[in-house]
Amino acid sequence: xxxxxxxxxxxxxxxxxxxxxxxxxxxxxxxxxxxxxxxxxxxxxxxxxxxxxxxxxxxxxxxxxxxxxxxxxxxxxxxxxxxxxxxxxxxxxxxxxxxxxxxxxxxxxxxxxxxxxxxxxxxxxxxxxxxxxxxxxxxxxxxxxxxxxxxxxxxxxxxxxxxxxxxxxxxxxxxxxxxxxxxxxxxxxxxxxxxxxxxxxxxxxxxxxxxxxxxxxxxxxxxxxxxxxxxxxxxxxxxxxxxxxxxxxxxxxxxxxxxxxxxxxxxxxxxxxxxxxxxxxxxxxxxxxxxxxxxxxxxxxxxxxxxxxxxxxxxxxxxxxxxxxxxxxxxxxxxxxxxxxxxxxxxxxxxxxxxxxxxxxxxxx
Length: 365
Known about the structure:
Elements: H1 2-11, H2 13-35, H3 37-40, H4 45-60, H5 73-109, E1 121-125, H6 129-141, E2 150-154, E3 167-170, H7 176-181, E4 189-193, H8 197-210, E5 215-220, H9 226-243, E6 251-254, H10 257-266, H11 270-278, E7 285-290, E8 299-300, H12 301-309, E9 316-321, E10 328-330, E11 337-338, E12 343-348, H13 356-364
Parallel strand pairs: 1-2, 1-4, 2-3, 4-5, 5-6
Antiparallel strand pairs: 7-12, 8-11, 9-10, 9-12
Helix pairs in contact: 2-4, 2-5
């Protein structure tokens, strides 16, 4: 216990001040009860102590209500010492506390704070502030994640340019210090967007060591480098067999612009349509939802289309990802069956909140 007090004494000046202030209060309260008991005497001993405490802090903060005044000469002498030393210590304690809060604020704004988060979203990199702001806006537009803690890690900015709603960690995105301060090990979602594919791949390897269960998305500029992410995914499959745990496959996002250049020739305005469908602020956009989890029932595509269109989001089914093997079917045919936990890709006004049980029962009738 003594060692702990000494450690706090060396580490925190404000802690020392508070200890001295409390010790001084205890001493003066005890002496006043001895030499000026009649002034502070109440029905119970607890109320008497509280009256002394009230007087001390009113005096030490220079408020001076005057509702309690020592009457005896010894009591007044004790009060003089409280005024001289108590006021100075109280002002010092308040100033030290304010300095501590300002220091913590500076550390947080400069991205030097060790965070303490769980189940949050981490953006590693992102480049220019406009790109990162767009990513943040898209995340916040989704009602599922609008309240999820969000962390941006980059070495571009001296201070957090994204506001208090976004935590900022400054440093190289692949460094152990940065991913530790960002609590990568406890994150639910990770987005990796390095300046180069090499930085993205190295950062992905670092994240993979700490958290294989997070839903991880990486941006790769050169499609030839996708093979490196594929190797990490293959290693995850091997770890899954050894550990017996379910690890998410890392998703790769690549540039669409070069593909659009060729497609635009024979399909005018196709790139603009794609941009509108990806941008959630422009109206209807893409969403991915899970098909009736927990219900052991397969349903033909035509009925699934009807159920989705009947929701308030007026969703349009455009694709299915099979839960069994991960294969994706775009524009599914009318003869296909949809199974529980398949992922449905839809275009909708907002993310559909589907009451599958009610819809399936109504279709059965």
